[in-house]
Amino acid sequence: MNVRTKSSNMGLILVLIMVSLLIGSCTHAPIQYFDNTPVVSNSCSADTVYFQNEILPLLNSTCATTGCHNAVSAKHDVVLTDYNSVMHTGGINLALPSESKIYKVLLKSNDERMPPSPAQAWTSSQANRLLTWISQGAINNACLEAACDTTHVTFKASVDPIFQTNCYGCHSATNASGNIDLTNFDQLAILINNGSLLGSIRHDAGYSPMPKGSSKLSDCEINTIAIWVRDTTLTSSGGGGSTGSTCDPDTVYFQNTVLPLLTSGCAVSGCHDATTRKHGVQLTDYSSIMQTGGVSAGNPNGSKLYTILSSGGGDKDDDIMPPYPRAPFTTDQKNIVKNWILQGAKNNFCDSGCDTTNVTFSGSVFPIVETYCLSCHNGNSPGGGIYLRNYSDLVAVANNGKLMGSIRHDQGYSPMPKNGNKLSDCQIATFNIWIKNGTPNN
Ligand code: HEC
Ligand code: HEC
User: Fold this and answer.
1) Among the ranges given (205-209, 230-234, 273-277, 398-402), the one the predictor scored with the smallest mean pLDDT
2) CA 273 – ligand 2 centroid, Å
């Protein structure tokens, strides 16, 4: 009885509140404004869930995306880009936190679930963190990380949580934006090796800034990932050909052609390697090439990296790069750089698998030599006194065994390409097949 009376009293009070709200809205609608400026604590308490540190990045990477709950799409009038909008449109229920719409939709079964398939569902621990945040009052709070502790960086404890909060929403197997699935170690290995993982989170020139559409990771998070990258050797299993797109014959790929060419021709000791950095120019990887090589994407003639190959930076002919006694780049080599810049100077990579059905000297063997060897085996003082300029030069080293010995890194030979990575198995097989076929000039 008692209970019933109480609840009908509650009903009356509610009606009164609603009536007064209605009257209010006829005059001045008192729209509550939730301050987007957070309350910042100087240190992070382990028991508190912070909106700015944890909840907002998670909402941004999984919900506040184009077509869903960003300010433009505002699907079902729900916007989850900032504190004020979350409080207004997220259906937060402070009295009954587990009844909050923003929480309940995470737990729904398949077709009503948010984020909807193909996006990955939130993990139960992520959902629980959201619930805790609401239970703690859904405050716009933030904390300053204590000194960034990077003494024991591991994937599971340090890096994976950053990816969970900021990245997997767009880069999982079922929802691989830009064809990138960060949960796949083979793919991660490629992104690490070609520099785009760090380039994108550091917002380096030439990379798409990540996490897309939200603020940059903290310095501590970036450092954590950088330390893990430095200390981890991920190797692609290489099976299944899932590494990069297939090769388009009209495209010049940075990782396949441009980088090996610059590594063998320019990033050598005393010149543009990481130690010497002559004139501040370092040409060892994509990010330093974009930062110090004077590349203007789409405009080879406005790119120092290209113009210096022909005329030099000044008017003297000895400004030409690579300098004497090295040989200038051949027309083919210059065209590699030129066309890559013309096509947008991207950090791209392709893999067509290993096709050795039609090995020819001009189509298969010499292009590898031009990219990986010629810069050192040409000019006035070729490496080891050995020229690799043309067909007859190559036949000579093929016949005396030095070609296969050096590229296979056989004992008793100097390993080639000198100071560079070993050629791929496919490239080594290509030389081998050409020699087995009797070194034809085709
Ligand atoms: C809201 C969706 C979204 C989020 C969140 C997101 N990405 Fe991306 N990411 C994309 C899209 C889309 C692309 C394709 C390029 C583009 O459109 O900018 C991409 C591209 C990339 C690339 C390739 C960049 C390049 O220049 O080649 C990397 C690496 C990457 N993301 C890593 C991350 C990491 C690491 C995080 C988390 C810190 C993250 N992304 C968060 C959507 C996202
Ligand atoms: C950065 C410069 C550089 C590059 C790139 C380079 N070489 Fe060499 N190469 C040398 C030098 C210098 C020597 C002399 C031996 C030494 O110093 O190790 C040499 C020696 C050789 C030898 C003789 C090896 C021996 O043991 O007698 C062969 C054959 C050779 N290189 C082939 C190649 C081939 C093939 C490539 C490309 C796949 C290549 N080189 C790339 C600098 C280079």
Assistant:
1) 230-234
2) 18
Indicate the Cα dihedral angle 160, 165, 166, 170, nearest 10°: 90
Query: Looking at this protein, which amino acid is placed at residue 306?
Result: Y
Tokens of 92: 């937060």
Model pTM above 0.70: no
- pLDDT beyond 50 at 3: no
Query: Domain spans of the chain?
Result: 39-143, 155-239, 258-351, 354-442
How far apart CA 280 and CA 36 sit, in angstroms, is 43
Residue 105 backbone phi and psi in degrees, to 5: -70, -20
**For residues 234 and 400, what is the distance between their CA atoms, to the nearest angstrom?**
37
CA of 348 to the centre of ligand 1 (A): 15
113, 118, 119, 123 alpha-carbon torsion, rounded to 10°? 60
Asked if 158 and 224 count as a contact pair (C-beta separation under 8 A), the reply is: yes
Mutate to test the pocket of ligand 1, among 59, 162, 168, 180 (most ligand atoms within 8 A of CB): 180
